[in-house]
Amino acid sequence: MNYYTKSLLLLFLFLFGFHFSSFAQKNGNFAPSTDKHWALTFFGGWGNYFGDLTPSRSPFSSQWNMKGGSFGSALEKRLSHRFSVRAEGSWTRISGDDAQTASVGTFEYNRNLHFRNDIFQLSGLVQFDILPHSGHFSQRRLVTPYILTGATLMFHNPEGMTTEPYGNTWVHLRPLGTEGQGKENTRPRYSTTALAIPFGIGANFKINERLDLGVEWTARFTSTDYLDDVSRAYVGDAHFGNNKVAAAMADRSRESVAVLTGEPRQVPDQRFGPGDKRGSNSSNDGFNTVHFRLRYILSKNKAPKDLSWLHKSNETYVPITYRSNQRTNNTASTTNNSTFAKYKDRYSIQNLAINTEGSEKSPNFYYGGLIYTTDRNDRKHFNKKNRKSYYNLYYAPLHDLYRNEQTRPVNIDTTVLNKFHHHSAFQINQEQVIATMYSADLPNTKVAQHKLFLMDILGENVWKENKELPFNNEHYSISEPSISNDGKVLYFVSDMDGGYGGTDIYISYLFKGQWTYPINAGPVINSKGDEVSPFIHKDGTLYFASDGHNGMGGLDLYECIMKDGHPFDIANLGEPINSKYDDYGLILNPVKRVGYFTSNRIGGKGGNDIYQLNVKEINVSRLLTDDHKNLFVVEEMKLKGKVISKDTRSPLPKIMVSLKNKETNALVTKRTDNNGSFEFDISNESNYEIFPSAFGYKRMKATDISTVGIFGEEHIEKTLVIEPLEKKVKLYGKVTNKESGEVLRNIELVFISPNEEENIYIKSDGEGNYKLEINKNKRYYFFVEEDGFEKKNYAIPDLSKFRTVKSMKYNIKLAPKSK
After folding, report:
1. According to the model, what pLDDT value does residue 714 have?
2. CB under 8 Å to 286, separation ≥6 — which residues?
3. CA 124 to CA 331: how far, in whole Å?
4. DSSP of 443-482, one letter per residue?
5. What 3-state class would DSSP assign to 248?
């Protein structure tokens, strides 16, 4: 079996594996969501021949002759998380010389043949990435190793150099028929067109969002044995008649000088005659290439922008990260236990009647009740192999839970319930929920890891699968969803690569109707341990569980204050919510008076139980005692804060701020000081509303302030944000190249204002002019998406400083990229 036949067999096996993999992806596990982009590649390197004029006919020969260059280009299309296809055109020069590779006295030395061959190739290749891609191309791996194969159409015509008296010039060898081809009653001349089967390995190294630098080695097994014009036997001088050049090129053993090197050589005593071996046709010729590749991604599918920077405040702060006692496993803390017990009299907890001898966990609010996960004994939904119940979703009404009355939970009916475990679910709106599902014990199902599914609510307890979320992946889990009150921020748990520990909390933003690629929530929240069960409250506070922060043991529940959309500060919720066992999955109602969480603490009914958390009503006139230790309630408190402008995020002095007691209707009004600060006296167990008012600013809806259930604190802090009235200003000017002064036509500019959902897209006209209308009281930035210019943000002057201006000329000078 020659190299070419072996190559066809290997290609068949590779393509069969490709088909099988594709079939598995279609009928089994879903492939990760991948951006199917185009890429253009330019490459250059060397070619290395193996055949009759080399010591070894193996592509893995240790003797490399890299005198021939090789270069070309390719157009690539990514098809899936592992597979790409490419069309490639290239040129490679290969060569061989007995005088340079053979030892004196050997057959090859005496033969003294040489050649060079310029090979033009058109290839169709399939690339298989060893490490899978997922998501947008900008989030691809830093290093991507791969293997490849395909088919190549080659055009070649070997040459040899003549000697005196024939002029020392390169001539094509095929027309000469050096082994007797092309004569009457002989073999026909070999074709200058051939096929090749390439096999290769390579790696791409990410340089920036769109650019890769790669290296690739490829062996090409061809359908011809005449890349070197050598295959069979000598035919003798008489065969060539008067064609002295053909005779000289067919048998070069009589030459006393190696023509390519100019070195003298020993002429053998015995000449080769007709029928003597000249080469071997036992296997075909081939060649290797080593290429360095520059790959540029052409796709217009822009990376999902992390728009959170638009909401950043100008205020500088240092987040409190609680890292001093960080541990991979949260064993009992060395922190003084009084820290965790500081507010234990504020809450009461109780084990719910819905708990069973099995496990109940992951509660979430749903249609006036709770949905939760349980593996309670279920005769309908169980694994027939091990007779164990699947984790399923159940519903229980809140009015029964408040009274802790025995109730009969209702099973949530879904179209895929019988196939999968259900882990958790979060209601987005009246029509849809996001649910976590997985199947750890069923082969050939489409859920191998925890994955998130969008489900349509057909009835109160009937769901239908809609679609997977785009960042599900067969190589890691995505689970435990929680969505912000406005429906635009999704929090979830994953063990994907690049995290801080085992499982981390990730964030995805809804941008133009699509969920962006996940962003790690960062080191304030995530640790070297596991973070699970995020819950984003209506007021923007994030709750989660972790075994990697300073805690009481096992998984503890934490509160994370979000500032300008970013984690700012975390705190352990302490006793009685946390224990030395696993406590997780906390949810709270809108006013934070009632909540539910999961725990496997001692005293439960099963493996994991759901507990109800209640904030105690406090009578401020009495003295609280705890183990004979007096704990006094602070009856008078302070409400402190600042008023800032929404557009500039700067404090506003001399602004009227009114505070109203909602029970007594008592109203107190004060002005902010020169720093924009205010301070009010407030009482315990009271509800207030506060609102600022100022000329030139929109009337703000009152903000609720409550001291119910808060004691042991001396003051509450609140920042009020007010929005200036909208005043339009016409902005116009010319767009030019900053260095050359050249007018830039049809340049797209994107204008951005912090806290604005929509960006403004405009283009300069045929004379480089632009114009748009903007809000005078807002700060604007702009950037340009055009190639060749710096990708940075440019600031528009603060127009609020100009009280009477209605239009303003602002010429834009774009800085070109440095070469």
Report:
1. 67
2. 3, 49, 50, 51, 57, 59, 196, 219, 220, 221, 222, 227
3. 58
4. TT-S-SS-EEEEEEEEETTEEEEEEE-TT-BTTB-EEEEE
5. helix
Is residue 631 scored above 70 in pLDDT? Answer: no
- Averaged confidence pLDDT in the chain: 79
Given this model, what pLDDT does residue 184 score? 66
C-alpha–C-alpha distance, residues 546 and 325, integer Å? 13
pLDDT of residue 367: 75
Can you say whether residue 320 is alpha, beta or left, with left for phi > 0 and alpha for psi between -120 and 50 degrees?
beta
**520-552 per-residue burial string, b: 16 or more CB within 10 A, e: under 16:** bbeebbbbbbbbbbbbbbeeeebbbbbbbbbbb
Which tokens is 296 given? 């540029």
Dump strand ranges (E) for 460-580.
462-468, 478-483, 489-494, 504-511, 514-515, 519-520, 531-536, 542-546, 556-563, 566-572
Q: Which token pair is 125?
A: 């290749």
Q: How far is CA 219 from the centre of its chain?
A: 33
30: confidence class by pLDDT, cuts 50, 70, 90: very low
What element of type H or E holds 200? Answer: strand 193-206
Structure tokens at 217: 């080695």
User: Whole-model pTM above 0.70?
Assistant: no
Structure tokens at 641: 């804060």
Q: Which amino acid is present at 104? A: V
516 CB-side CA count, 13 A? 23
Which domains occur in the chain, in start order? 36-297 (2.40.160.20), 311-616 (2.120.10.30), 636-722 (2.60.40.10), 728-814 (2.60.40.10)
pLDDT tens column, 440-494: 444 444 445 788 888 777 666 667 766 788 888 878 888 899 998 888 889 999 9
311-331 pLDDT, tens digit each: 332 222 222 222 223 333 454
β-pairing, 812-814 vs 728-737, is parallel
Q: Token digits for 167?
A: 């002029």
Q: Is 120 exposed, middle or buried (0-12, 13-18, 19+ CB in 10 A)?
A: middle
Give the whole-angstrom CA distance, residue 341 versus residue 493.
29
Any idea how long the chain is?
A: 819
Asked if omega into 165 is within 30° of 0 (cis), the reply is: yes
